[in-house]
Design goal:
Elements (H helix, E strand, L loop, with lengths): L3 H5 L4 H25 L8 H20 L6 H22 L4 H17 L2 H21 L8 H39 L3 E6 L4 E4 L1 H7 L3 H5 L9 H15 L3 E10 L5 E10 L5 E8 L1 H21 L10 H18 L3 E8 L2 H8 L1 H18 L5 E6 L2 E7 L3 H13 L7 E7 L6 H17 L5 E3 L6
Parallel strand pairs: 9-10
Antiparallel strand pairs: 1-2, 1-5, 3-4, 4-5, 6-8, 6-9, 7-8
């Protein structure tokens, strides 16, 4: 079974070249076997041909198995040896015919495909040298002079070499340009195989996450995904392999320093369904900015519902909370009471002591009264020196006791008046507040420093 590294890494060039050379040896041996089975010119040393073919096949197997351990110079020496052995085959056949010259063509193709033009030319020069020697030693040159056959070989193989090296050079330049753009991209570009391993990555991965590209290839991608995002990521990948497409999928990926980076993905399956092509954008900073913005908005919303002087909920908050309390009371059938409290002679106090002193009275009253109330009750800065108390699940008698306790806790030698109203389960918010305000007016008109209760609304 292949290791993860073997599954995802592109084979080193020396290994690829060695395996191509091994295939050439085996193919050459097969060509000899075919030439001996089919009708062929007589007069050659067939025993020597058979032994040479077996040796080539055996050598091909050995080279294939040892391909990963053969250095680049070893590949060149083996290719040079194949050229020499092919010349030996031609000599043993007794005639410089074309069937074994096919191996020369294959050898030229391999050297032209895998090596720079100068190295390919060196191999071709060696081939022409040994072939020229064999043409001088072989019994027959099949109707052509040794020079003519050698010139034909020179021209044909040179054309093959020039054509293949030219194609390879153009392809290499195109690949280099593509790789240059690939690496220049600020986005994290990659391909991944069916086993979930990265195959190719650009340098942006190392820049953003801190890993080397080899480190990223050694483990399945999902192993570095945040545990909370792993199930979603696996489901997204499964959808890709079923022909889907990712347009804006987000997950968290662990960087080398242990931090988590938010990545936004777009990806699709390759046409042959063997690879996933993907682009990831590091949106960590954007996520942080969004989180800060959400936090600021939340703070702004809270501030918009809080009185800046006392810290109590303000009238805007009441506009949300009171309808909700009424809806709960309607569902449960429990009573709901509302009291409006006004600090007595507050304007006179402000005029005498100044607004800063008046603000302090409001702050202390808010703190003291809020401490008297139950956990389910809500004290609201209703406006100016007026406060509102929302008393859920409280009948008028209980509400009156709570408001009286609150009035007794009025600090700084101040007094207050209060108007109390019980919601009748039918009236709207404005009507309920109007009745509580009317009760407050009655308490103030009756001499202040007292509580007045509103009568139920007339149906």
């Amino acid at each position: 079974m292949a290791t993860p590294q073997n599954r995802v890494s592109i084979a080193p060039p020396a290994r690829t070249h060695a395996r191509a050379t091994a295939a050439l040896l085996v193919a050459g041996a097969a060509l000899v076997a075919i030439s001996l089975v089919l009708p062929h010119p007589s007069g050659g040393d067939e025993t020597a041909l058979v032994l040479t073919a077996l040796a080539m096949a055996f050598a091909g197997g050995v080279v294939w198995l040892a391909a990963g351990r053969i250095p680049a110079i070893g590949v060149h020496l083996i290719l040079a040896g194949i050229t020499a052995v092919t010349s030996l085959l031609i000599y043993e056949s007794g005639i410089a015919a074309g069937q074994y010259g096919t191996i020369f063509v294959w050898a030229t193709l391999i050297t032209s495909l895998y090596f720079p033009r100068r190295l390919a030319a060196v191999h071709l020069a060696w081939l022409l040298l040994v072939y020229g020697v064999v043409l001088l030693l072989v019994e027959s040159t099949a109707g052509y002079s040794p020079l003519t056959r050698w010139l034909f070989t020179l021209i044909s193989l040179t054309v093959v070499m020039l054509l293949i090296t030219s194609i390879v050079a153009r392809r290499a330049r195109a690949d280099e340009r593509a790789r240059h753009f690939f690496d220049l991209s600020r986005d994290m570009l990659c391909t991944a195989n069916m086993d979930g391993y990265f195959v190719e990555l650009n340098d942006a991965w190392a820049h953003y996450l801190g890993y080397s590209l080899d480190e990223l290839r050694t483990v399945p991608f999902v192993e570095r995904v945040h545990p909370d995002d792993r199930e979603r990521t696996e489901a997204e990948a499964a959808g890709l392999f079923e022909g889907g497409e990712t347009l804006s999928f987000e997950n968290r990926y662990r960087a080398k320093d242990g931090s988590w980076h938010w990545l936004r993905w777009s990806s699709q399956l390759s046409p042959d369904e063997s690879l996933i092509y993907a682009r990831a954008t590091d949106v960590t900073e954007l996520k942080e900015i969004e989180a800060e913005r959400e936090e600021l908005l939340d703070q702004v919303q809270k501030l918009a519902r809080r009185d800046s002087l006392t810290g109590l909920p303000n009238r805007r908050a009441l506009e949300e909370q009171l309808p909700q309390a009424m809806a709960r009371a309607r569902r449960s059938g429990e009573p709901l009471s509302v009291a409006i409290i006004d600090i007595d002679h507050f304007k006179r106090y402000n005029d005498t002591h100044g607004h800063l002193a008046g603000d302090e009275v409001l702050r202390v009253c808010a703190r003291e009264w809020d401490g008297v109330l139950r956990g389910e009750d809500t004290l609201v800065r209703f406006g100016g020196e007026e406060f509102l108390v929302l008393l859920p699940d409280t009948d008028p008698e209980q509400a009156a006791e709570i408001v009286d306790r609150l009035r007794q806790q009025t600090p700084m030698e101040q007094t207050c008046s209060a108007g109390l109203a019980l919601w009748d389960s039918a009236e709207n918010v404005d009507d309920l507040l109007r009745r509580a305000d009317e009760a407050l007016y009655l308490a103030k008109a009756s001499g202040r420093d007292q509580l007045a209760q509103a009568e139920l609304a007339q149906s």
